[in-house]
Design a protein that fits this description.
Largest sheet: 3 strands, mixed
Number of strands: 3
Strand order of the largest sheet: 1-2-3
Strand content: 15-25%
Helix content: 40-55%
Structural class: alpha+beta
Shape: globular
Distance between the termini: 42 Å
Number of helices: 2
Radius of gyration: 16 Å
Length: 102
């Protein structure tokens, strides 16, 4: 039981550190208004839980400035993969909002 508690604490610490690093990286690429939300997604078939990082950031016109948006996403995902490894990039969602309001 003590081992499970220690493992859970280690995982929580790793998630907190990854969340902090992800938000810092998002602000570097998307500006100071970028922020991170985390939530747990449960696979309905297996019951496995996975932490999802959802980055929200302001992008005035994502539909008409798609090329620049794509470049930003690629730069962010490359930097994220370099910092955290490519195996967890699937847990990151990038969500452009048209203004500072969500």
């Amino acid at each position: 039981m003590v081992i499970h508690a220690a493992e859970a604490h280690d995982i929580e610490t790793m998630i907190a550190e990854a969340a902090e690093a992800t938000e810092a990286l998002a602000r570097q690429f998307f500006g100071p208004a970028a922020y991170l939300q985390t939530y747990t997604e449960i696979d309905r078939e297996t019951g496995d839980e996975e932490i999802i990082f959802e980055v929200h950031y302001c992008f005035p016109d994502p539909e008409n400035d798609f090329d620049r948006l794509t470049e930003l996403h690629m730069a962010f995902t490359d930097a994220f993969a370099d910092a955290n490894g490519p195996e967890i990039i699937s847990r990151v969602i990038l969500d452009a909002v048209p203004n500072d309001a969500d």
